Amino acid sequence: MAVYATGSPGRVLRHDGSAVLVGTQNETKHYALRPSTPPLAVGDWVVVDDQRVVDLLPRASLLQRRDPSTGGSQPIAANIDIVGIVCGLDRPVPPGRIQRFTSLAWDAGASPLVILSKADLVESTVEIEGELLRHDPAADIISVSSETTDGISDLLGRCVNRTLVLVGESGAGKSTLLNALAGRELGATGAVRRGDSKGRHTTTARQLFLLEGNCCLIDTPGVREVGVHTDVDTIDDGFGDIAELAVDCHFRDCGHTNEPGCEVQAAVADGRLDDDRMRGWEQLRKEAAFAEIRDDTAARHRADRRLARIIRNAQDIKRR
Ligand SMILES: Nc1nc2c(ncn2[C@@H]2O[C@H](COP(=O)(O)OP(=O)(O)OP(=O)(O)O)[C@@H](O)[C@H]2O)c(=O)[nH]1
Ligand SMILES: [Mg+2]
Ligand SMILES: [Zn+2]
Which residues make up the CATH 2.30.30.140 domain(s) of the chain? Predict the structure, then answer.
């Protein structure tokens, strides 16, 4: 184990843009983010001294999403084991968005878990679970109600000694779930709008809480859009059934649209592969391919700028 002459190990408990709260063995302390601070995410293991965050330790996993304003990636949570994709049953459950979060979770190096919340509002969750499994046969799904506490101890049991991050749209019930799991009011919650069940963005910062059984739970502000920030290969990891079929396509670079001898299309035609699942896969692949091109372009621009700077410096030196 590394020995640090100065400083103590700690974990980032809260990130609010300009400062982080870090918990160490002895205290929790706020640290302003400075230009010299390494980029941090909630859940990061760090080394701190009295004044600053000195070092960022290697991450076992990192959940990030595409930043809609810059196109870059935005870290959401680090060193997480499970990504809890929370969907309120007071509104339609969107398989496409769940699939996006699922891809982000695999990409992060964590396991996705679909959490259907507000189960008290529906008679049965069998149908909706069936629908989700049709889109993703490997989906891990749990139904809970923070109101009646149905499913709460099941969920808690799965998170013993693990770090779970809750993601999902505003009003999905993430903070209410945090409180139900904790058995007390740790996070503020807010009513959804009548009519369209839209949330009010009650939670404003990402924060880690320690629950019973050493479960570390990270609550996050709701997001509506999740950009895919990954590559085509990672998308395929979440669609093993299709990738397996594709091995038998006649052409190695088959696009699975109308190529002759396409095994994927054949499987859709004879019912072995669900049409919606196939379409969801295509959509995510398209987005990932686009993200790869965009990232390449951004990287090229950065390299160009670096080169221009080097040339400028060289010219300056020559002129002297
Ligand atoms: N009936 C019912 N209502 C719930 C349940 N869980 C949450 N709610 C309600 O849903 C609304 C939104 O809950 P929040 O926990 O604030 O939602 P959130 O996902 O944290 O929202 P943001 O912080 O805005 O992202 C509140 O009015 C909760 O009372 C549940 O299990 N059953
Ligand atoms: Mg909240
Ligand atoms: Zn094919």
Answer: 8-56
